[in-house]
Protein 1
Amino acid sequence: MRQPAPARSLHFRITAAFVLLLAVGGGGYYLWLERTLYAPYDDAEEKHWYEELAAAELDSLAAVLAPLAAEPGRAGPLLQDYGRGVARYEAELIVFDAAGRHAASSAADSLAAAVPFADPALLRDMSSADWDFGSYPRAEDVSAYENRVFAVRPLVPAGGDEAAPAGYLVASFMPPTIAVGELEADARRMGLHAALLLLLYAAASSTIIMLWTTRRLRRLSRGVAAFAAGDLGARVPASSADEIGSLGRHINTMAQRIAGMVDELTRKESFQRQLVANVSHDLRTPLASLRGYVETLSLGGAQVGEQERGRYLAVVTEKLDHLDRLIEHVLILSRMDSGQAGFRPEDFSLGELAGTVLDRCAQPAADRAVSLDLDLDPDLPDVHADPLQIGRVLQNLVENGVKFTPAGGRVAVRARRVGAKVEVEVADTGVGIDPRDLPHIFERFYTGDKSRTVADAGPADHLSRSSGLGLAIAARIVEVHGARLEVQSAPGAGSVF
Ligand code: ADP
């Protein structure tokens, strides 16, 4: 079996399909994660918190802290209390006094060390209503506070001067993130999702691949089943270059061969049936007349005269000859059909063989006043063939020529060298063959349309009887030798084989 190119093999295709599907699935899952996980809190929520909730909360905190601005000892615990309550939104609250010094902080590990002092002017600016709420301080000012969002409220005790706050409450927020616990829960849930999704995805991918593969196998199977059910014309799809395609091609080749064999068997069987039918028919007629003659002869001397007895016996002998010949022809054909003809090729001179055949036919030809000719190329090479079989062919052709040529005619055997081969012609000046018979004369038992065949007025020798098998056998023998028996003939113009 010829292997398909590696890139077109089923193995490669299945792997590639699986990898492709996995890539598509993995990519899709990643995009889904991007959308759902990494953007859980959208900007609207963030904005709402900063601008409304945080602002309100800061305002109320500032009101509480204002009286304590000058008392870091009391503001500190309050802020830290508050800081512990801030879970979802990480925020740090710092109180600076009027001079910008760090006074208290919501976290124990406050950034007080990093920012011990804030410019009161900046704090005042930041606390004004038109300060851009989302502004970030310049990185070089407070690098520790990079990426944070700040909100500042002036702390003005009741009755105090608005223009000179007692201090400032600064809230610094990290942009919203998820609390650690929540993150872990989310991660666990996602891990579970991912595992489930991957499982489903792998199942779906392999199902798709197997569907694709089994669909093709099912089509193969349907074709084979149809063939097995008797539809010898059924073939399977075999256009693909991979293993399944190759299997399909092998199945089709096999189907072709089986169909050919069935054809051949059917043809042979019908030949055999025809042979038996024809042989039975051809045997019955001479047997019936033989029986008549034998019965007459058995009546004894009183009824049958000496002269008559001699004539009857001659007819009986002639009919027996014919039967013998018919049976011999049938045996030859059936041996050739079953491949048991046992051809024994050797090198021999065709000229000599033709001479022998003409000698054998000399008597019947003389009886019919038909002359025989032999015309050979002087440089005729030896041929490699079975001399017995080729002799049979030549004898049949010459006998036919003699049989179908009226008195005074001629039958010639010519042999010429054509390249490395020898071409043999048997030509007669006889009655010729009707164009309607011509295509059939090599068929078994074909003896021509009797109404068209010129009545054979010659002597009653073995040539006067026809079996319709001679040319069929001759053509087969020539065919087995790798050559072809052809004929040219026209009514009244003789025949050339
Ligand atoms: P048979 O000679 O026993 O009838 P063949 O197979 O040899 O059988 O020939 C088949 C038929 O072909 C003959 O019956 C005859 O009609 C025709 N035929 C063969 N050879 C010749 C020929 N040389 N001239 C005219 N007809 C021929």
Protein 2
Amino acid sequence: MSQSDNSLRLVLVIDDDQTAHLWARRYLSTAGFTLISALNGYEGIEAFKQHSPDIVLVDIDMPGINGFATCAAIRALPSGKNTPLLMVTGTEDAERVASSYVAGATDFVVKPVNWKVLIHRLHYMVKASSVLRQLEKSETRLSKAQHMARLGHWEWYFVDDIKMYWSDEVFAIFQLDKESFVPDEASFLALMYAEDKACVQESFDEIIKNKTVVTIEHRIMTGKGEQRFVEQQIEMIENLNHQLIGLTGTIQDITERKEHENKIKRLAYYDEITGLPNRTFFLELLSSTLKLAKRNDRSFAVLFLDLDDFKGVNDSYGHYIGDLLLKEISRRLSDGLRSSDVAARHFHQCHNAEIARLGGDEFTVLLNELTYPEDAAIVAEHIQEWIAEPVYLENLQIYTGSSIGIAIYPQDGENSETLLRNADIAMYHAKKVGKGHFQFFHDSMNIKAQKRRKMENYMYQAVANNELRLHYQPIVGAKSGQLIGAEALMRWESPQLGFLPPNDFISLAEDNGLIIKFGEWAIREVCRQHKRWQQQGLGHLTIAVNLSGLQFNQVGFVPMVEAILAEYNLMSPSFLIFELTESVIMADTEKMFNKLWQLKSMGIKLSVDDFGTGYSSLSYLKSFPLDSLKIDRSFIKELPDNDDDAAIVNAILALASTLNLSTVAEGVETNQQREFLENSTCNSIQGYLFSKPMPVDEFYAYWQANTPSTL
Ligand code: C2E
Ligand code: CA
Ligand code: CA
């Protein structure tokens, strides 16, 4: 410490002994201190107030107020809290020493004072106190800064004695009262937002496991029940041996920042007029959809929509009306695409058709996970219908139309830009064809879509025009070879399209809902036919009818069946078997349970079609009132050479026998297959080996030929 530094140091000596002041002056001034003298306690306290000395020496034995009282009085002053205070005492008895400390003394010296030594002590004490003062200053500055930044600091020790320390700001962030709330681990975690708790806990684990610093953003629920966003930076506390003894972290309230970010995001990602995602957001959605589709080997469609003559609306009615029109269009798109009806039929598993406004009068729609890419055409048609409805705005009636271009992943592009561009190009082609049209980017899709549309148009007339047929395929006993029944399989004899097998039209009928009508027709036709067979001597044959899930899940399905049975006076129709696939039966097991029992109680038999291709819960198989399993053709195909298939078929047969179900093997084409099944526990078989499905006349002839004459 240099001389000039010391000259600033003020020493206050409070002593009633004049000679003490003389000695003090002599030694202190040569050591660079400036002396202030006080001859009694009162004077001393006053001098302290006036000069704020750096250090104080107080004699204990003084007339008036003694050294202890003087010391205590100085300590009580705001500026006297941290000033070093030395008590000077004649005798070094324990009681006096103790009283000195109680009064707030920093230390004490014994008379006669060895000034040479004392000088060094004084230097040290002044220095220490100035460091302390600096520290205090920076601490208050830090806590002010922390307060301003809403930054809190916590420490949590979990070795030996578990405890937690929170800075004032942590209490403030959690909106808890510092005086009454005692923080601990449990209360700390309890304040984390329920859904984010696991994430905070995981961070703790990660810090401990990887010895890293972790920064997390999460929500908290404050003591006043407010949800806030915080950012925490957490690290370990180690002891000198580098052993983990706790965690420490800073916590900052970032709610306002988050709100700003969200606002910026809204501005950056959403269109202001319609509130729909904008181009930036749409491209992001597109690229994440792409990744998923790539991984799952799925197809999806991008629809690019442009309003016809939007410019005309803007020009004649102004931008205000133009904006309102855009809003209305976006509402129609959202409502329409979200309506469960459209979603259920055309997107199957997907409920999320994403809509965006790219700018101007251009919109895009992302159709996820299409089973048939050409179905995008059906959605495009719906959209065009919704938009073509007149719009009423401020006493105006506005008609508008739209042109749509469709690009399909992956055939029309494997990245976002290409898909969007090709959808745009397709839209231009659509405009060229004429307003209010849609076009696929790829022409083969246009042809497919046209075919589908044509088929759909004719399909609506199929029942009324009596174009549907049922063909019957024999089912025979596996051991006896006797004809025991038939499966009714639908065909469509269309005057325009020709003779169509079910695989060509059933999926479309399921998409547009016509399968409900078709299925009802099939049940009625089977009943009508059986009635005739009863008269012709074929009444003992069972007939299996295939049911679609959509049809079966209709609310009115059971009453409809009842009505048909009553119509033909077929009470307790033991000949009638309904075939349902595994996926239909297992889809909504609760509802199934009731429906299946209702049918069962009407005397109808129930069979699980294509067994083995889907997923069946054994416990449901057990509790449902089922009668038989139809082993899927794919397992029969390579019998008896394929050991795996043989094992599967045997396993299904074993399962069926434990569940007390009879079995039908489908698709039997060869004698080897038949032999294999003959020697198993399979009950009956069906396949081209006996006959293909045939029209009813041929079936009658088949029956005659295969039934031993009773004459
Ligand atoms: P499915 O219920 O599995 O019907 C068996 C299909 O296998 C029939 O095809 C039948 O002709 C064919 N098949 C029978 N034996 C053999 C064989 O030995 N070898 C080969 N390769 N195939 C054989 P079809 O008639 O084309 O029917 C196809 C599917 O259409 C049916 O499969 C069924 O899922 C559906 N379907 C048919 N009629 C109806 C109906 O009235 N309503 C509903 N919802 N679906 C129906
Ligand atoms: Ca079937
Ligand atoms: Ca089948």
